[in-house]
């Protein structure tokens, strides 16, 4: 049945914004008027009849906007609050639909509500949208439904999403200034090579004198920036497209992730970030009753690096044979020794979930510290790079002048 979102005036003249189920827009207006609510604007949000068509179409999956993690975290928090307040699940989702800003998220929530009304469990309804709801999210909801603690599970999911968003925001804010400096330096360099240098070097070319190698290189580079800027732009785009295509293949992704781990600074940051995600997610899954083997299978998909994911899978195979998690991870020589020690202590004390939470806190703080340190190091490096470029330009211009002075002398 179609769902309509409306703005209306009630009998007291107050503005009302909500949604309503109806067979058509005319029926929706009649329903509202029977409740003494008078719509001023009404639009269709979602039609159940189009559900199958949307799922089978390839183009919408490729080009449709995705749900932002901030929206998902906010919805999860609000849903937990409504269920804790005594709202039935369907009523809680129905209440959240008009408050959702994203049109695609409204449609997804409407489809989930319809699926639950048809007798599908909440977890199964979420599983129909893997691009929006992760495997961890679905499994935790399934665990909450079976144990009758759905509101607690949703609270924990909201906490996880909010912490991940907070960490991502800290990383972005730390890198914003260096990235802006780099962009500014590139623009200044382009201005110098495309507009300033040609006006100066034209004097040397008119004289017909043999020029030093650095000056000839500078003139050639300047001509490239003047007339061949589109070649540079196409080259940059080809690099980005090549990386994207490389990451789509299994071998290419493996090589890309292995290269990241071998880079100085970047490799350490990648490992710390992966361990923070691993520990936070695994601890939360174990707290909600998911078995260790099942949790490890879920966690390997969210660490963000194929090498580390393969290591977790190998550790899961060893755990299945009866070995401890700490010993299994230690043999792979990827996880830092202190994280292995803390996992082993958690296993021996029976407080593995608590210890994993502490590991996540430690490495999230280390990620933030590492990013801040790297951004602080990038700033002087960018300035030195720009200074070296400017020095090369000045020397390339001055060398012919020195040679002319010597000939005159």
Secondary structure elements and their pairing?
Blueprint (H helix, E strand, L loop, with lengths): L2 E7 L5 E7 L3 H10 L3 E9 L4 H6 L1 H6 L5 H16 L4 H8 L6 H15 L4 H6 L7 H13 L2 H58 L5 H15 L1 H20 L1 H13 L3 H22 L4 H8 L6 H15 L4 H6 L6 H13 L2 H57 L1
Antiparallel strand pairs: 1-2, 1-3
Helix pairs in contact: 4-5, 4-9, 5-6, 8-9, 9-10, 9-13, 9-18, 10-11, 10-18, 11-12, 12-13, 13-14, 13-18, 14-15, 17-18
Please give a handful of descriptors for the protein shown.
single chain; 409 residues; mainly alpha; Receptor-associated Protein; 2 domains; three-stranded antiparallel beta sheet; flat
Summarize, please.
The protein is mostly helical. It has helices at 25-34, 51-56, 58-63, 69-84, 89-96, 103-117, 122-127, 135-147, 150-207, 213-227, 229-248, 250-262, 266-287, 292-299, 306-320, 325-330, 337-349, 352-408; strands at residues 3-9, 15-21, 38-46.
Description:
This protein is mainly alpha-helical. The chain folds into two domains: 156 residues, Up-down Bundle (Receptor-associated Protein), CATH 1.20.81; 242 residues, Type II secretion system (T2SS), domain F (Receptor-associated Protein, Up-down Bundle), CATH 1.20.81. The chain is 75% helix and 6% strand. It contains 18 helices and three strands. Strands 2-1-3 form a three-stranded antiparallel sheet. Helix 8 runs antiparallel to helix 9, helix 10 packs across helix 18 and helix 13 packs antiparallel against helix 14. The protein is flat, with a radius of gyration of 30 Å.
